[in-house]
Each structure stands twice: as C-alpha cells, then as structure tokens.
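Course assignment 3, question 2. Fill in each field.
Student: A.L.
Task: Predict the tertiary structure for the chain below.
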Amino acid sequence: MSAVDPAVITEAAACLRRGGLVIFPTETVYGVGAHADDAKAVARLYQAKARPVEKLLTLHVATIVQARQLPVEWPPVALELARLFWPGPLTLILPRRGEAGTVGIRVPRHPVAEALLSAAGVPVVASSANRSGQPAPATADAAVAALGDFVDVVVDAGPCAVGAPSTVVDCTVTPPVIRRAGALAREMEQVWIR
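Answer field:
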C-alpha cells in the first residue's frame, strides 16, 4: 500500500460532505462512497453502478465504537462477530432500532479508509467501485476504468491486500446466515454460522 497525501484525504472528505462520489481503498476492494444522508448523492451512486435500488448499500464507519452508536439492534452473535473480525472484511446485516428494515455495517481495516471516514464527519454508504454484476476492483486504475466518468475524487493507495469482497453475515435471523462467503469464508468455517 502506498502512502496517500493527507491533502487528498481532506479533499475527498470535503467532496463526500458536499454530495460528491469518492473512490477509496479498503483492505478488500476499492469502494465508491457517498454521503448517506444526501438523497441526491445516494441516487448518483446507484446510477453510477447501475445498481438496482432494492439492493441496499453498506454503511461504512471508521471505528467499532462508531458502529456501536448506530441506531441498530445488536444480537449477541453480532457482538461476538464484531469482536472477532472488526475492523476487517466483514459486513454485518443488523435490524434497525425502532423501525422496520435492516442496515449493513462495515468497519474496514485500512488506514486510508479509516482516515477518510473519520475526516468526512458524515455517514458514508459505499459499495464496490464497479458496475453492478462486474468484478470488484482491487486497484484504483480498475475502479476508475469502471466508474471514472461518474466520480468526483479518486483516492489511490495502491492494490488492495485482500482483493475479494467482504463476507456478509445476516444477523437478523437466528441462527445468522452467511449471505456472501467473501474474504472470511475460511474463518467463518471456524465459527457457528451456517
């Protein structure tokens, strides 16, 4: 992973706050993010990816502490998975607190992603930086090739270490279910998830 100029992080964070789209690295693949509370920004993200709107985006946060402060329910199994695998390539699907619906949450293990999410100061939804149905990019160049015409800022930190999407575990059902095997497929065999 190459170093990223702090000025680039500052620029990317400001871009997110004003409703722009940003390509950024995680340990798994490059993602494209938007301000979660900006409906126009989220719509742009769906349009850029040609992603069906019924496929929810994942909320990315910088730290486990921030994740625990979100308005979601935390079943004991979700707490245990977060303890074992966060920060890291795990997305947890959790029920919203006090309302219908679910939310996917991820705490990336990548210093650039953490710095960007912290600097943004707003909730950030993201998905892999590719057109829907296409391979997820492990380099900034591949992300730009897929979505460059749609994004406002690209944060290039070199190739992603893992190169496979995060594992997605649905904790809204009992027992929880793996919805995408992803980067932690082998590790999940060690725990009680089906």
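Instructor remarks: Strands lie at 22-25, 30-35, 58-60, 90-95, 102-106, 124-128, 153-154, 167-170, 177-180. The chain has one domain: 6-188.
Grade: pending
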